[in-house]
Amino acid sequence: MEISIRQYRDYAHSIGILQGLDIKNENQQFSNLKFSSFNETNANSILQNYAPHILDEIDGLAHALKIEYSKALKLFSGYVIPQVEGMGCSSVVHLNFAIRNYDFSPELYDHCFTMLQPQECFATAGNSIHIVGRLEGVNEESLFIAFHFVNNEVTKEGLMASTIVRIILDVCKDTSSAIEVIKELPISWSYNFSLADRYGEIAVVEKSPFATKIRRNDELRLLTCTNHFQNECLKYLNRDNDFTQSHKRLSNMDLQHLNHMNGEQIFKWFSNPKSPMFYQNYQDYFGTMHSFAYLFNDQVIYISLPHGKPHKIDWSDWIKGYDSRLETLSGEIVEKA
């Protein structure tokens, strides 16, 4: 398994063109995605209101891929629902660090870690999904966000979680502003969003298409998050048959006493194939695809692939204009016996 490290600094439209040229050979992969109905007017309106530069990026993608803008908007805006299985994800957010495992399948994975510095918005770094979306990430203001799938049985026209993550990273500078924007944005399925910033504010936003609740822990200054809602008003949306073992993963984190560990120690625990947080059920769309960490005091990113070496990116240096020398990351997908 290998993923590309892609780095872009330019205006959003030019970044879209550059990304389009980089993924030209992968265009068929996205064209084959199955989507529900698509409301182009609403997609344009929401992105124009919250992140108009993303529309410029999508237009650049359309130019490079030689496809109609309307098709590019459908493929990359995240205002449609791909017909895919739900995934599992775990995270811990703390005033000093944020760590997250993304568990899914290599069949539906961009295999790309993207660092952007557009002229129109904050610089960001994170694992991409459907090119424009992000699975998790951090921005130049040291705001971290990650999404966690909960349920797709109760739906409404809205954005995919990955587009919401991208919008938050691009336009918000702290947890409080991120919470307000997440409240306003329409979402198609039910998700948790784990948040942390450099000011020490942490939160989990529990969001369904019809309600939003905020979870905090001001006493411990640490929050864990998996793939179910904990607010009583939203628990009815939790899956009855959860093959991702969401409650078990939450218990495993509680038993580990994470408050007595530092960010590097937790990152190593998350990414260790022998850890109870690491899964190898890839055929069931529940295998660990990558581990991501951000340390607020040091302003560094750690990322590793399954059975691969951890890599460190100096995020402070990158936003000053110094490119990372990393071009690829390697790992190995090992299916559970």
From TrEMBL:
GO terms for molecular function: hydrolase activity. Gene3D superfamilies: Penicillin V Acylase, Chain A. Keywords: Hydrolase. It comes from the Bacteria. It holds the Pfam family AAT. The keyword Hydrolase applies. Residues 97-307 form the Peptidase C45 hydrolase domain. PANTHER family: BETA-ALANYL-DOPAMINE_CARCININE HYDROLASE, PEPTIDASE C45. This is Predicted choloylglycine hydrolase. It comes from Lentibacillus persicus.
